[in-house]
């Protein structure tokens, strides 16, 4: 709109978003936010950038972009078992579009309110449409890391892997209005950060990661950083019925293994903790299932056979 500046957008749409937290002395409006240091001994911080036509379709609703921009950050905190607290947002727009920003702010605010996150600062600038969100959280217990998986551990995963990739395919096929594919589309547009599960797994899981680049790729990160092999069982990698109905079994399995954007949690835990994991998942109201084991060695295996590089998920600088 004529006469509308980036300062107007910040003041009108990006101020006061999220939860009103007692540990925020000053949020948006100054050179920096003023936050009170919590009593928790561990401070967690993560940043993600979403770029139009790379991480989300150009015709994706602004409200969904706002929701998803924070959800992917919350998932990083969830993987470590943390409690999210504060976020800052960088928004780049190709042109002034107040309606788009208003929708973006609604989506961002909705998920921030749900998870008691205060949006305490940010910036708006001109350029190709992109969103960067930096989030900070805390943990009262030692955070769960990627580099602490142990040989002999079970490998577990939450959620319906592959459905986000299937939902993107539905969208790209122009079938997002079909009621039978609504669950797949929602899995892509509105991923659920598994914060309760991550927190419930503290002190139980040896290692964890959120599945953002695909199961095989992210399991590979645990394997390489822990110095172990992750051996997944093909029989346990079962795509959901609706994913198979849309893409067929072969394509659905490929999405499950390498599709990415699920933001489920993949974690390892001792065999002796199976009942404890099951109880933690039940308490978090998040279904989980065992999909393999951690072994001595390196890399990711399927039924004992090494997985090739073609299945290692999305990489920005490799085509």
UniProtKB/TrEMBL annotation:
Q: Pfam family example for this protein?
A: AIRS_C
Query: Per UniProt, which keywords does this protein have?
Result: ATP-binding, Kinase, Magnesium, Metal-binding, Nucleotide-binding, Thiamine biosynthesis, Transferase
Task: Identify the residues that bind Mg(2+) 5.
Answer: 213
Q: Binding positions for ATP?
A: 122-123, 146, 212
Q: In this protein, which residues make up the domain named PurM-like C-terminal?
A: 151-298
Q: What class of enzyme is it?
A: transferase
UniProt-annotated binding residues for Mg(2+) 4? 31, 76
Could you tell me which HAMAP family the record lists for this protein?
Answer: TMP_kinase (MF_02128)
Q: What is this protein called?
A: Thiamine-monophosphate kinase
Species whose genome carries this gene: Spiribacter salinus M19-40
Provide the gene name from the record. Answer: thiL
């Amino acid at each position: 709109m004529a006469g509308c500046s980036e300062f107007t957008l910040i003041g009108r749409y990006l101020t006061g978003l999220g939860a009103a937290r007692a540990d925020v002395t000053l949020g948006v409006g100054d050179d920096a936010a003023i936050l009170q240091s919590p009593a928790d001994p561990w401070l967690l911080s993560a940043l993600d950038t979403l770029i139009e036509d790379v991480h989300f379709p150009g015709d994706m609703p602004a409200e969904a972009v706002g929701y998803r921009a924070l959800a992917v950050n919350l998932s990083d905190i969830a993987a470590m078992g943390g409690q999210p607290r504060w976020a800052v947002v960088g928004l780049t727009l190709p042109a002034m579009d107040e309606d788009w920003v208003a929708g973006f702010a609604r989506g961002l605010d909705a998920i921030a309110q749900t998870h008691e996150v205060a949006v305490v600062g940010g910036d708006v600038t001109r350029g190709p449409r992109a969103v960067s969100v930096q989030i900070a959280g805390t943990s009262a217990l030692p955070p769960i890391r990627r580099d602490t998986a142990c040989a002999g551990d079970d490998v577990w995963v939450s959620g319906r892997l592959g459905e986000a990739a299937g939902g993107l395919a539905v969208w790209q096929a122009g079938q997002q209005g079909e009621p039978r594919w609504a669950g797949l589309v929602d899995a892509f547009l509105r991923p659920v950060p598994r914060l309760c599960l991550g927190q419930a797994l503290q002190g139980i899981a040896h290692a964890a990661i959120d599945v953002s680049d695909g199961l095989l790729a992210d399991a590979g990160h645990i394997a390489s950083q822990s110095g172990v092999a992750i051996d997944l069982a093909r029989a346990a990698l079962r795509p959901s019925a609706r994913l198979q109905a849309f893409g067929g079994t072969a394509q659905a399995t490929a999405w499950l293994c390498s599709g990415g954007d699920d933001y489920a949690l993949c974690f390892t835990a001792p065999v002796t903790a199976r009942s404890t994991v099951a109880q933690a998942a039940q308490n978090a109201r998040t279904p989980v299932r065992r999909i393999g084991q951690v072994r001595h060695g390196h890399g990711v295996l399927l039924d004992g056979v090494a997985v090739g590089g073609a299945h290692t998920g999305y990489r920005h600088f490799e085509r």
